[in-house]
Amino acid sequence: MRSCPRRILHILATVLALSTPAAAAAADGATEGSPASSPRESPPADNWLNLDALDLNVYGFSYHPDRETVKRLGLDNEFNPGLGFNYELLDDARSITFVQAGAYYDSGRNWAKFAGLGYQFKWGERWRIGGAVAVIHSRTYNEGAAFIGMIPLITYDFGPIKVNAVYFPKFGNRNEVAAYGLYFSIPFRK
Question: Residue 35 pLDDT more than 80?
Fold first, then answer.
């Protein structure tokens, strides 16, 4: 699966390209000059990337409740540094739809790479609850073969930084032990 990261990046680039105001207007049948559906201001037509919708993810930590099994399997690395990006496709009063891609040093001491599409419901002003469907590839999981997984995600937005908690459930040979993860998102917003 050497080409898996390239495929993931190609899919992510396609999704980002389709999320531009011009592509969204074409898909909706809207005409030039019609109001945008997002509360956020649209970027200039020649700017395909809206930096106000982009976050830098800084990965970090995991915790495995089944302490004996993780030690036995060598999955006890709980410091998981890495970087990624989160791009909001739609941000309305009730929810956020986003794409993410990144890489981190996983619990089995291998580099895990992923890309996914997610949705979070806004609960109050700062909480977001939802999840993402992601393509994941690491030698640690699923006997080294890429696979698709559902990842529950809770976010608390402090403004200048977001704290994200994820849960990776135990799922056969794809993920042999459950884990909780914690990472931070730094918005590029002004």
Answer: no
Number of helices followed by number of strands (H, E) in the chain? 3, 8
106-150: pLDDT as tens digits = 999 999 999 999 999 999 999 999 999 999 999 998 889 999 999
Separation CA 30–CA 26 (nearest Å) = 6
Q: Domain span at residue 106?
A: 4-19+51-187
The CA distance from 98 to 13, in Å, is: 13
- How many folded domains does the chain comprise? 1
Tell me what pLDDT residue 25 has: 45
Q: Is residue 41 part of a domain?
A: no
pTM score: 0.74
Cβ atoms 117, 85 nearer than 8 A? no
Q: How many CB atoms lie within 10 A of CB 51?
A: 12
Among 23, 158, 32, residue whose Cα is nearest residue 89: 23
Q: Does residue 25 belong to any structural domain of this protein?
A: no
Query: Would you tell me how many other CB atoms lie within 10 Å of the CB of residue 111?
Result: 14
